[in-house]
Amino acid sequence: MNKHLLANMTWQEYQSKIKDSILILPIGSTEQHGPHLPLGVDAMLAENMSLAIAEKINAVVAPTVSYGYKSLPASGGGPMFPGTIDLKGATVVSLVSDLLEEFLHDGWKKILMVSCHYENEAFLAEAADLIMRNRTDEFPKILLTNWWDNLDESIMPQIFDEIEFPGWALEHAAITETSMMMHFAPELVREEFIIDEGMEGPPTYQCFPPSPTLIPQSGCLHTARSSTAEKGRLIVGNSTHNIVSFLEKEFFAKVEITD
Amino acid sequence: MNKHLLANMTWQEYQSKIKDSILILPIGSTEQHGPHLPLGVDAMLAENMSLAIAEKINAVVAPTVSYGYKSLPASGGGPMFPGTIDLKGATVVSLVSDLLEEFLHDGWKKILMVSCHYENEAFLAEAADLIMRNRTDEFPKILLTNWWDNLDESIMPQIFDEIEFPGWALEHAAITETSMMMHFAPELVREEFIIDEGMEGPPTYQCFPPSPTLIPQSGCLHTARSSTAEKGRLIVGNSTHNIVSFLEKEFFAKVEITD
Amino acid sequence: MNKHLLANMTWQEYQSKIKDSILILPIGSTEQHGPHLPLGVDAMLAENMSLAIAEKINAVVAPTVSYGYKSLPASGGGPMFPGTIDLKGATVVSLVSDLLEEFLHDGWKKILMVSCHYENEAFLAEAADLIMRNRTDEFPKILLTNWWDNLDESIMPQIFDEIEFPGWALEHAAITETSMMMHFAPELVREEFIIDEGMEGPPTYQCFPPSPTLIPQSGCLHTARSSTAEKGRLIVGNSTHNIVSFLEKEFFAKVEITD
Amino acid sequence: MNKHLLANMTWQEYQSKIKDSILILPIGSTEQHGPHLPLGVDAMLAENMSLAIAEKINAVVAPTVSYGYKSLPASGGGPMFPGTIDLKGATVVSLVSDLLEEFLHDGWKKILMVSCHYENEAFLAEAADLIMRNRTDEFPKILLTNWWDNLDESIMPQIFDEIEFPGWALEHAAITETSMMMHFAPELVREEFIIDEGMEGPPTYQCFPPSPTLIPQSGCLHTARSSTAEKGRLIVGNSTHNIVSFLEKEFFAKVEITD
Amino acid sequence: MNKHLLANMTWQEYQSKIKDSILILPIGSTEQHGPHLPLGVDAMLAENMSLAIAEKINAVVAPTVSYGYKSLPASGGGPMFPGTIDLKGATVVSLVSDLLEEFLHDGWKKILMVSCHYENEAFLAEAADLIMRNRTDEFPKILLTNWWDNLDESIMPQIFDEIEFPGWALEHAAITETSMMMHFAPELVREEFIIDEGMEGPPTYQCFPPSPTLIPQSGCLHTARSSTAEKGRLIVGNSTHNIVSFLEKEFFAKVEITD
Amino acid sequence: MNKHLLANMTWQEYQSKIKDSILILPIGSTEQHGPHLPLGVDAMLAENMSLAIAEKINAVVAPTVSYGYKSLPASGGGPMFPGTIDLKGATVVSLVSDLLEEFLHDGWKKILMVSCHYENEAFLAEAADLIMRNRTDEFPKILLTNWWDNLDESIMPQIFDEIEFPGWALEHAAITETSMMMHFAPELVREEFIIDEGMEGPPTYQCFPPSPTLIPQSGCLHTARSSTAEKGRLIVGNSTHNIVSFLEKEFFAKVEITD
Q: Which GO terms describe its biological process (chains A, B, C, D, E, F) (predicted)?
């Protein structure tokens, strides 16, 4: 029984955390991740990253939002893959702004959204802005982040030791996500199905309806070859460290580092 | 690794199930359940009930919708309890109709929604109606159910052996939910905090804003005393059996009972 | 010229009532009620019940909302019957929240919504909650009720003297509604078309699209045989009495009983 | 029991009319009409005009929409008068488009909307356009009209025999509406409170928030002096005649004139 | 470089105007205007009228809203003409209420909307009302106007010297608009394509879908013959003068007339 | 009179282009661009880029959407700057999907959206997806692009000859936009106010409400020093060339290059 999960707490236990703790809302998606990774990758990464952060700062992790904004072809394969279950933009905004409103209503002053699906970001920012736009006090304060923007440049050569970094857009079901899944849930990685397929580079424009030939049939935008659990551990450790660092700065002395 | 969970499947594994299987969407809530049960009860029951059904008919269980429609005072304690995280009606409708639309788009013909939060029902029906209203073919077909409407009258005396059945509205965090949690996740039940408190009967009207004195301070609408894991097993077994029975009827020969 | 109807008052007469009176908003539907009752039953019952209450406490009755939320098969016959004119959930919520907002803006502190269509209830509660959720004062206060939840258990044997009570879901165009119409508007009851048809019991799940064979072709969910104007008078008298009782309690000394 | 009112029909009686009849939807408002007319004027005129038309062509009159779009200061007095119960634009559009959709779904091919509240018109046209925009067949066909655009120029001198016609914007609670109410419901006209007050002319711009000094305190935009039931009869007769004439043209031989 | 255009200012130049100046928002449409006028007429007139006003009172002119509410057949030709690019009512309301909200947020106290497309008006009033309805202070104040309601009766004979005034509804792509375009942008008027075509008079009802035979094939509702740049100058001068007059009254001493 | 502008065409001229031409929709914003550039930069660049493309392929340029999605602090300075006039996400989606729907309705098969405001992109993609998602034919086809994704890597050293490229997020009111404005509209560039200020690097998270100290007071995210009209000409030429190249590919032989 994970003690950081809001879902496991009684309402009285939860209430006792509000004043001094941080609320983390993990947000993922349900989206194809090639023949070797499961559909729940983004939601699983969001929940596990949130728990990794929560363990360091004794935070509360809300139930993961398991469905996210529409997969785009050039960063997730797009809507044509079965198992990619897309929410409309307005739905993501309503869902997340309702949740933020409720957490604020419960009295939370420090909220962190951890999204592990690139396409979510504009809509999560819209949700947060709709709730916070007319507030001028420093707190409550809502932060939105992900793991890829929080990797140090210095660790990139260790991750992309065999394969050249193709840019974040194409790192879908590729080395970073595969390695993180090997670290968090190795039993869900079908290593035998990792293939050496991918796109040349992201297109310089978007097309509607999406081109049926743009994306490799496997759904992989870049190869996952050379992924290891050790690389996953490195990514998680580094990004968690950097996220905790800015939480310290933004949420100040109120954040106690427990490890 | 549960093999019925959509989130654990690759897109190709998922795709292979669509033609002959059933898609189950569990829908819960995040809501106070007294001092002895965690906030995630409704979501956990929805997911576990869905898995129990899936095991019998080899179905696919989509990621659980962990947040639901607003808790009402006389059936869930209402919005004043911390940890009760409510979605607006329009949000529930958008969220669930987006999901149904996507599952239909993937080719599913037989979908079952399992809700374990009473207040969700009108909004889930609205979502399904918006998607299906203008269709006249028998399939695709979407069913919506819960566990409490699927209990045989004959087992009620076994469940309410010490305490008289107070009606379903007040069975919130009471004997049935507590027993089911003892069955599914005993480590999450704080038996030492079960108290003998509750309401006399549901009011004959609703009040806005909700009365601060209507609901017992614990959030329990009726006592959970006399709950047992065995009763939970009985409830789950009986309602699962009855749900599988109507699935056979509605989805006909296509449903193969595997146990 | 009924003196309780808002529509009959000049704005100055209306204005003079706001401080000390109660505003009642009747909400019905336009829905099939079998071969013996007219489509306007729910709206007519809502208006007549509201006037019966208004006569006892000198209240103001706003124009009846004549269209309501979608008829569901197992409680109203569903969308397949001609003359069942359904509003979407979002429309009911917008309509009623606009009205409540306007009445509050005019200065009303005590508002009662009387709905005579079961399917309306979740959406009326949503409308009231959207308007009142962030208010913490005791007043303004909005109450929502119906007649069936306000019948004493003790009068049920008098109403169901020949026919056994089938549960409220199936009491559609059946003994209670038919009797109330015989009491309020006997000229609109086609007694010669009362038939002895109905469903066995409500299903334990909902189906989308609705099954074409679930509902009897007449639209009657249960027989109306044994209906009488006298039973209607009893139902109206008893429920009106109970409604006035809780109005006294909730709206306190401010409610003067005039009969 | 008026035989043209949909609300009075059983669903089978209603169904029998669909193929050959016309469906009329009356749309009014709840709005101040000075010290001498009741708040329900627009809804009452809409219903009575619809019935007058229905009697001539044996049409079906749906339940009146009793609430309408916001009163504007220079044509209805504006929002500051108690008893003026305004719907938002989006609400009017949703409400009326839901209704039109349902009537079309029931099979109606010829629908007439009769609005007696000037401010409704843009939003009724929007609702009809949303439903009909992508249809190219001649039928179903929806018409939208009112009484004032259907008066012959030749009868104006009879109506404005003592008082000069001030333009339609200012004819609010003035001679035409007062005369029509004297004709339809004389018991609701407080003749003793008719006053000789009004505005000079409509302003050439709109102001938000509305100016508190623009509108006479009585709410009358022009005098109702010289109103008579006879003038009301003339207005109703003339506009009904002209409306029936264009119904004949638009709905062709299918309209049978019965008087 | 026009110094009144917001788009040409830096944010610091713009900021320096807010306290003492007036913000003018021009709103047009993209709509057919017959064979002799371009699709941008309404937007061009809105921008040029706004600049003419701004020059007199040293105001700031925001970027023109170039798309407007749906063209109606009897006042603009309707949706069947290519190049008539219609926004839905809800879109116009959202767009303009967002803009007004932002201008108020920047601190503007005096805002004028100048619309040159008749069909916009109800939706612009709705947008302004949604933003201002609950404000009771005199300022901020938003005014909404057009040029045609601001013409003196006395100049009409000069404009309609050869052709009789057909009423404003039919003055679409006719003498007034053509003359104003000859004044503001003569190079865009194809004088050789002015034709002597038009409708008899506006219908007394609206029809959905619009009748394909109601509107002349050219899109002209009335002849533009006898249009001159001189008449355009007269219209612009007269309406600008009257608009500036009421701005003086409504915005009082704060408006400095600079010419 | 620019012959590519839709606004300058009559409806008949416009109609004659639909079959063989391309429709370009320029989308900008109204947003602070430091002390040296005007608020209309993004709209002006969108319109000028669209015209540059149109001249090469004889396309039609629709009226520019002058207001866009909310400015984000780390890519545009954010909402705190006066003159940054933000639309909500839902408004941008409604506006652009209405426009696309209308252009498709007019018969366009090839549409290009040119956005020059980074924050617009997710919402423009959502609008296009809502309109196109259920279409499977190759045409109509809608493309969405910008200038910065269409610059060859090889020209970057020429643009960033003195100043190192800071990444596209910080290139707001910096060298590229300033150079393009010097090329298109030199009279609007206040060269004397170019300052050497900027941010260190974009933050790795977003903060709501935005931090008041994150953005330099001038609104410049990076220095514009070393901007020249020549660099602007280079950027416009190179990106226009690349955009025309993919138009050729996507719209195939139908695109005739005219220069």
A: creatine biosynthetic process; creatinine catabolic process; riboflavin biosynthetic process
